[in-house]
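Hallway conversation turned thread

IA: we were arguing at lunch whether anyone had actually written out LysR family transcriptional regulator end to end. Turns out nobody had. So, for the record, here is the sequence (288 residues) and right after it the structure tokens. Reply here if something looks off.
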Amino acid sequence: MDIRSLEVFKAVAIEQSITKAAEKLNYVQSNVTARIQRLEQELGVPLLYRYHKKVSLTPAGRELLPHANKLLYDFEEAIEAVKLSSAPRGTLRIGAMESTASTRLPLIFSQYHKKFPQVELSLYMAPTVDQVSTILEYKVDGAFVDGPILHPEIVEYPVFEESLVLITSFSPEPFQLESILHEPLLSSFAHCIYLGRWQRWLEDNGYASMKVMEYGTLEGVLKCVENGLGVTVLPVSMVESRIHQGRISCHPLPESYGKVPTVFIRRRDSYMTSALSQFMELVGITNL
């Protein structure tokens, strides 16, 4: 078993196609097939179910994938450590929630790129629960998530604090809670922590939970609210321009429900590259 074979296996697992994996790696298809077959022979188990044009992982393949990810991650870190110099270089993979990616990261990424142009930045955007999984699976170097996480394999650093607001369509009239309780509570993804804070406040104050409607994208959610379909809960930093333009009305949640810390997380056992340490310092994290 060698690193190149694990790279091939990972590509096939992601693409679910030997042909597409070969194209991605710039290999001939027979080379990809041969490496997968050699892996299967070495391990003594089939790793793929093979169909007409697609493949999928067998139970053994699913078991191997996270270990392959870790080995490839460690290999990349070893190369980075050997090449390490005063100037950060290589690839830096950052994860973030949509709220952080849209409001906080553009300036941070711009400043970082100007300072360290040799680093190839990439962003993976997903909810907190998915970001934690990608950190544990060595798929990103660090991620911005709603905290606290309190996981034994993860180190977390406080970076921001968001203030949540209930967002309704614009109205000059005084807000009446009862007027929106029958409306759908809109979200761009399942298990949103912001909606959870609002639902908990409702329950703690004797109200029934509101019915949640998923609407695919954050922009779609806000357009629906602007046009009178439903309400949502988001950090006020995400909607400040809409507030000033008179497109929506916002109502702060009580502080014990409305303050949400954003933390930056990384795996406790991951190697701290120069590229990552410089990024964290730019964000304001000094206790590395």
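OS: looked through it. The first strand starts at residue 48 and ends at 50.
IA: good, adding that to the notes. The longest helix spans residues 59-83.
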